[in-house]
Write a structure and sequence with these properties.
Layout lengths: L1 E10 L6 E12 L2 E5 L10 E5 L2 E14 L10 E19 L5 E4 L9 E10 L3 E10 L2 E4 L11 E3 L3 E11 L4 E8 L6 E5 L14 E6 L4 E8 L9
């Protein structure tokens, strides 16, 4: 079961613009997590889905979409878009301590980031449309370890900066469109690390270490579409 509540205030300066702030709360019963199986060893990793007892999530959100014409008339075709979310979550396992109390682990919910940031600019005219978008997601729990059993620590995904660009232009009297897309311009490395320190973020000096990582490269796509605008005549 999930108990969910949120409170939001939204303001619309003019058509197509918005400024929004909000707060949210979620309570999960029996949330499903991907965990390291106690039967794992250094040569063979086994994973299984298991239920924690419960989890709570608190968060705050901010969103803005605003044209830049108020800065200068020359920026009337530009729009700034951005949103930021701060989250705090805690999981309680279905185990008990010697005192009989439930063991609340001081770690986030599986797959949950402490923050998310998005921002960028859009340029729009009857002929041109372009956008430059930035994204960053905070360190998130990628695999729940089993340090007391198999000896494996929680594995987290490090934050990475993601920058995408897209531009399109109408051609052939508006029936055709040329589009250029460049994805993951910065090509930051995907990195996953063991977290024996138990602290948020990557702490090399306190035992955290990179488990594995890779780069997926930058992708460039060029496309062309044409609308023949065929009309069916009715009898």
């Amino acid at each position: 079961a999930i108990l969910n509540g949120d409170l939001r205030y939204e303001f619309y300066p003019r058509s197509g613009e918005v400024v929004s702030v909000g707060a949210l709360y979620k309570h999960f019963d029996d949330p499903i997590e991907l965990r390291m199986d106690p039967g794992s060893n250094s040569d063979r990793w086994l994973f299984t889905y298991a239920n924690a007892d419960k989890a709570t999530l608190l968060g705050a959100e901010f969103e803005i979409r605003k044209g830049l014409e108020f800065i200068s008339e020359g920026l009337k075709n530009f729009t700034f878009i951005g949103n930021a979310t701060v989250l705090d979550s805690k999981v309680t396992l279905s185990t008990t301590q010697a005192s009989g109390k439930e063991a609340a682990q001081d770690r986030p919910l599986y797959g949950q980031s402490p923050y998310l940031v998005n921002g960028g600019f859009q340029y729009t005219t009857p002929v041109w449309n372009a956008s430059l978008l930035y994204n960053r997601v905070g360190p998130r729990l990628y695999l729940v370890g089993d340090p007391n059993g198999a000896g494996f620590y929680d594995i987290y995904e490090k934050p990475r900066n993601l920058l995408d660009f897209q531009a399109s232009r109408k051609v052939l009297n508006g029936n055709g469109e040329l589009k250029l897309t460049v994805s993951d311009i910065l090509n930051n490395k995907f990195a996953f690390y063991d977290n024996p320190s138990g602290k948020a973020g990557y702490n090399f000096g306190q035992g955290d270490r990179i488990n594995y990582g890779y780069k997926q490269g930058t992708t460039v796509t060029i496309g062309f579409t044409y609308d023949f605008n065929l009309k069916t005549k009715s009898n």
